[in-house]
Write a structure and sequence with these properties.
Mean pLDDT: 85
Structural class: alpha+beta
Strand content: 35-45%
Number of strands: 25
Radius of gyration: 27 Å
Largest sheet: 6 strands, antiparallel
Shape: elongated
């Protein structure tokens, strides 16, 4: 099992790195005619409103729609800034210039900068005249130091904007004139290359019907959950149900509260799977029926951390149990109804990159019947189909709290669940 862990360490490093080689210097268009995809980083945006990425508010002198439009107003004087992240980024530049067109409805002070692995570069300031398009061409050497540097964001800002002044900023025709040609494909496809060529995710074959897991870490221990029932209560319940687990109605409501939640914090979403499984295990009528959920939860978290949160093993439960409902007003009688729980959890409340590898590893699944569902994992209206023992790349459009829609396909039924993760 140690070989599996060391392979995973290599995998994490591979996903974090991208290889660049000396190549031909070429002009790279980052945004033009509204066709180039991208977004403004939400966590660092101080513009009053999010950008309209493909806006059409008419044609202007030397600027034709569509273009990027940012607008808004604040009740205090201040700076409006944000980072534009285009699909073609990151790239390695070898000198050249940053070119863009900019226009504002109000006169003001406009700034632009480049960001790379060393952080933000120098700001290049320009005075804008109201209602006039300006074409800027700024040497990269004036923005970032070094003969060959990586660029992953384009920073823009309006500075010292007056209070209560509605202002609109238009951006178009963004380009870098000297990009290392081979770096574009290597950087933008780094995740897929790591998936396909460097180190496959280290799946392991397990007997799903068995409660035994080999264990990945010596310092992660089994933490048995003590049943809520006495020996006599277990025997009484066994006489009225075939279920291996029986939970009270209030526990079921807590599980469904997580499963059906429309909004959660990243930490509540992360802990929801384990909290739910703990409630199920508390209702155990027999020993050694399923793997210890706390151990699986801890081990999945360890693996996510070892990849520097670029890889997320999923936690999955697909199992039956009984729910004890009150059979009369005094609750002296209980009626047990069978319930099938299909539940998915994340191994971390956060990820460190916008393109994350998601792995459906049976090792981290609880399925006493030996059957696991098919999954669809969706973000930004793009879905990733996963079967047990498969993985793929999930991409987020911005930093901050992000929603993941999970579609669980089991026994000709489809269940939906929403998970939340913080993209750093």
């Amino acid at each position: 099992m140690k070989s599996r862990i060391w392979g995973f360490v290599a995998l994490g490093g591979a996903l974090l790195s991208s290889t660049a080689f000396a190549g031909t210097c070429k002009n790279l268009v980052l945004y033009e005619n509204g066709q180039s995809k991208g977004f403004m980083e939400e966590s660092t945006r101080s513009f009053p409103e999010a950008p309209e990425w493909s806006a059409n508010w008419g044609d202007f002198d030397n600027m034709k729609s569509p273009y990027i439009r940012l607008s808004g107003m604040r009740n205090y004087r201040g700076d409006w800034t944000g980072s534009l992240i285009f699909d073609a980024l990151p790239v390695t530049v070898q000198g050249g210039a940053l070119k863009l067109k900019v226009r504002s409805t109000q006169a003001g002070n406009f700034g632009v900068w480049l960001s790379g692995v060393g952080g933000n570069g120098k700001i290049s300031f320009h005075t804008l005249e109201a209602g006039k398009t300006q074409t800027l061409e700024i040497p990269v050497s004036a923005l970032l130091e070094g003969s060959s540097v990586e660029v992953d964001k384009i920073g823009i800002g309006l500075f010292n904007v007056p209070a209560n002044q509605y202002t609109t900023l238009f951006i178009d025709d963004v380009a870098l004139t000297c990009v290392q040609e081979t770096a574009v494909s290597a950087s933008t496809a780094a995740g897929e290359e790591a998936l396909a060529e460097i180190e496959p995710y280290p799946f392991v074959n397990v007997d799903l019907a068995s409660p035994v897991r080999e264990g990945l870490f010596e310092d992660v221990y089994e933490r048995p959950v003590k049943s809520r029932y006495s020996a006599s209560e277990k025997e009484s319940l066994k006489a009225s149900t075939q279920a291996k687990f029986v939970i009270p109605e209030e526990s079921q409501m807590r599980i469904l509260g997580f499963k059906d939640a429309e909004s959660l914090t990243a930490k509540d979403s992360w802990r929801g799977w384990f909290n739910s499984m703990f409630l199920v295990e508390k209702g155990s009528l027999a020993e050694g029926v399923i793997p210890n959920s706390k151990r699986l939860f801890d081990e999945a978290g360890e693996l996510a951390a070892m990849s520097d949160y670029t890889v997320l093993p999923l936690l999955v439960a697909n199992m039956d149990y009984g729910v004890a409902y009150c059979g009369d007003s005094s609750c002296t009688k209980r009626e047990i109804e069978d319930y099938r729980l299909s539940l998915v959890g994340l191994s971390s409340p956060q990820v460190s990159v916008s393109r994350v590898r998601v792995a459906y590893d049976p090792y981290f699944a609880i399925a006493p019947s030996g059957k696991l569902p098919m999954l669809e994992i969706c973000a930004e209206n793009k879905c990733l189909e996963l079967k047990p023992g498969s993985d793929g790349i999930l991409e987020f459009g911005s930093a901050g709290l992000q929603k993941i829609l999970v579609k669980i396909h089991s026994d000709n039924q489809t269940f939906e669940q929403k998970l939340f993760v913080e993209v750093k």
